[in-house]
Design a protein that fits this description.
The protein contains 2 helices and 33 strands. The chain has about 400 residues and is mostly beta strands.
Length: about 400
């Protein structure tokens, strides 16, 4: 156990006037519908991994159906890649960025109240910023970004976008945070938690009411943040580290070093479920740890695919629902495991974790992010855009 405190710092913010020439908002349903292809296709799982994985499953505990595919936005002739998914009250928010040095980004809003026919209802495009992550709170979305704008001390920023009548607007306010790119963002307990990565990375806390940056703690190569409404947990790389903080006092509670996340400035994610955290650690695969002790209670290595370089099959993200664990492994696709215990149980047990199967997309689309919410599984397929799937878990 380690102890410490937050650095208390305050950064400036910049309020953007409406109709800014750096933002394009699209709320025309006809134009938006052209990007969506409805489908109703059962996804056939490759179950061969059961023979070489953690164990064999007698009965398939999940049925997956592809409901819709969404083309990635095209901005200034460039195809953007999906990076993050956030779901709240039957609305799915999806972020996009640009591969390489050019700064371009986008956000999509989907109405998912109809499970059979999700609808793209609003989009916005940024001609000067990547959008790496997003979260929702009180008629605003908060975007973790990297920007080319010269208004701020460093490229890492958080931009707050106002939502009116359920649609995106060009009314925004931007908060300056340290480092080169804001990598992940979470909203809880009237605070915004954000990681900013690369050299000089931080975990920062923004008051959701005053919109001032209250605290910041240095964390090199900070990649992801999650909270259950109590403590904050963050994941960083090179090497993999998991840190927990008390969100009120800023005290550093735990600091664990793990294997994995050894590729500099790559993607890693963390999801907190009471006493457990589910981690995607790149070349370290997916791990479930006990937050109280740091013990690794489940460990799934990245898949080995004969025709793919190992750097293309690392664990980019992981998410759980009930007893199911969904993992995005780049061009290797989506891998699924099953436990007899619910991941949200208030203990540090993952009973009899078994591999179920996997599926890949056409043209080896790289799966960057994955999120399950209720009956929906959202897969951010990089340049292949977004896949919306329906999951039916067996009793």
């Amino acid at each position: 156990m380690a102890a410490g405190v937050w650095l208390t710092l305050f950064w400036s913010s910049c309020t953007e006037p409406p109709d800014s020439d750096r933002i394009i908002v699209e709320n025309d349903l006809t134009n938006l519908a052209a990007r969506v292809t409805q489908a109703n296709e059962i996804v056939v799982l490759d179950t061969s991994i059961q023979n070489s994985g953690l164990g064999k499953v007698a009965v398939n505990p999940v049925t997956i159906t592809l409901i819709a595919e969404v083309e990635s936005p095209v901005l200034e002739g460039e195809v953007l890649q999906a990076t993050d998914v956030y779901v709240k009250s039957n609305i799915a928010y999806v972020s996009y960025n640009m591969i390489g040095e050019k700064y371009l980004g986008a956000v999509d809003l989907f109405d998912i109240s109809d499970e059979e026919q999700p609808e793209l209802i609003s989009s916005m495009y940024f001609i000067d910023s990547d959008v790496n992550g997003l979260a929702y709170s009180n008629d605003h979305i908060y975007l973790a970004m990297a920007t080319s704008r010269s208004d701020f001390e460093t490229p890492a920023v958080v931009e707050m976008v106002t939502i009116k009548k359920g649609l995106l607007t060009d009314e925004t306010e931007t908060f300056d945070i340290p480092s080169y790119a804001a990598t992940d963002i979470e909203v809880a307990a009237s605070r915004i938690f954000v990681t900013s990565g690369a050299d000089g990375g931080h975990v920062s806390v923004i008051d959701d009411k005053t919109h001032e940056v209250e605290f910041s703690a240095p964390l090199e190569d900070a990649r992801g943040v999650s909270t259950d409404g109590n403590d904050i947990a963050a994941v960083a790389g090179t090497p993999a580290r998991v840190l927990t903080f008390d969100y009120q006092s800023g005290e550093l509670l735990m600091d664990y070093t793990l294997s994995g996340a050894s590729i500099p400035f790559s993607k890693s994610t963390i999801e907190v479920y009471k006493q457990k955290a589910v981690l995607a650690l790149g070349d370290g695969g997916v791990k479930v740890i006990c937050l109280e002790t740091g013990e690794v209670i489940a460990d799934i290595a990245p898949p080995v695919i004969v025709d793919l370089d190992p750097t293309l099959t690392v664990a980019n993200a992981a998410t759980t629902s009930g007893k199911m664990l969904y993992m995005s492994n780049g061009e290797a696709g989506v891998y699924i495991a099953y436990s007899k215990d619910k991941f949200s149980s208030n203990d540090c047990d993952v009973d009899d974790l078994q591999m179920i199967g996997s599926f890949r997309f056409d043209d080896l689309q790289s799966v960057n992010h994955i999120k399950v919410d209720g009956d929906f599984l959202f897969v951010a397929g990089g340049l292949g855009g977004l896949k919306i799937l329906k999951v039916e878990e067996a009793d």
